[in-house]
Design a protein that fits this description.
By secondary structure, this protein is an alpha+beta fold. The protein has three helices and 14 strands.
Length: about 180
Amino acid sequence: MAQTAREWFVIHTYSGYEDRVKMNLEHRIESMDVSDKIFQVVVPTEDEMEIKDGQRRTVARKIFPGYILVEMIMDEESWHVVRNTPGVTGIVSTQDEKGKIEPVSLEDNEVKSILHQMEAESPRVRVGFNRGQSIRIIDGPFIDFIGVVDDINEEKGKVKVMVSFFGRETPVELDFLQVERL
C-alpha cells in the first residue's frame, strides 16, 4: 500500500456530510501532524443558478454527493488518519484475485477535469421543467400566458415556449427566469 507519489483518491462519506467530513479531516491532519502526507481535501461542487419564487440564487451543488477527493501519499499512516475520520465510510478501490483490496487513485486528467468544472465562471442554470410541460409566463410582455415548453437551451438560459395567440400556436423564446412550472 505504501507509495511515494502524491495522488488523488476518492473517499466515500455519508451523503450530506461531505463538508463536515472535510472539516473533520482537515482538523485531524493538523492535530496528527500529517500535512506532509495529506495535502488537499476537496468537496467537488459547482455553482448552479436556482430560481425560486422568481428570485435568482446561486447555490453550490455537489458534483458527487457522498464523495470527497483527497490528495495524499498513500501509506498506512495517512490511510489510518483518513479511514478513522468521522463520516468516512470507505475508499474507491479494487480487489485482486486473492481478495486483497487496493485503493484506486484518479488519473491526472480526471482530477484536472473535476477541478476545472469547479472553477467555471458562470453558474449553470438549473432547469425546473421539461419539453412538453405546461408553464406560466411570469415576466415580460406575455405575462400570465400559459404555454408548453418546446425546446430548452441550457447554455443560453433560454426556453422556447409555444403560446396560443388568437387560436394559433406561436413560438416565444424566453429566459428561464420568465417562466414557472404549473
